[in-house]
Amino acid sequence: MALRLTLYGRTYCHLCEDMVAALEPWRLSGAIELTIVDVDASAELEDQLGELVPVLAGPEGEICHYFLDIARLDEVLARVG
C-alpha cells in the first residue's frame, strides 16, 4: 500500500516544482500517493506556513521542507510504509 503524503506549496514556487519532480520516482513506483495543496487557497495555511514551502508531510507530520530529504523520506517509508 502506498504511503499518503501531502505537499504544501504554491503554484509559482520553483522549489515546489522541484520537489514534485524529485518525488516522481516514488510516485511512479507506487511507494507514495501525493496530494498537492496550494497554501494560498487557505488563509489558515498561508498564516501557518508563510514562506516555509514546499513542506512535505506524512502521517507523522513534516518530513522535510524547501528540498526533498531523501534519507528522511526513506526512513519514513521504512517505518510507516
Features:
81 residues; 4-stranded mixed sheet; alpha+beta
Structural class: alpha+beta
Query: In sequence order, what are the helices and strands, one letter per element?
Result: EHEHEEH
Q: How are strands sequenced across the largest beta sheet? A: 2-1-3-4
Radius of gyration: 12 Å
Based on Cα principal axes, name the global outline: globular
Helix content: 40-55%
Write the layout of secondary structure elements.
Elements: E1 3-9, H1 14-29, E2 32-38, H2 43-49, E3 55-58, E4 61-65, H3 70-80
Parallel strand pairs: 1-2
Antiparallel strand pairs: 1-3, 3-4
Walkthrough of the structure:
- By secondary structure, the protein is of the alpha+beta class.
- It has a single domain (3-80), classed as Glutaredoxin (3-Layer(aba) Sandwich), CATH 3.40.30.
- The chain is 42% helix and 28% strand.
- A four-stranded mixed sheet has the order 2-1-3-4, covered by helices on one side.
- The longest helix has 16 residues, at 14-29.
- It is globular, with a radius of gyration of 12 Å.
- The mean pLDDT is 95.
Concise structural overview:
It contains 3 helices and 4 strands. With 81 residues, the chain is an alpha+beta fold.
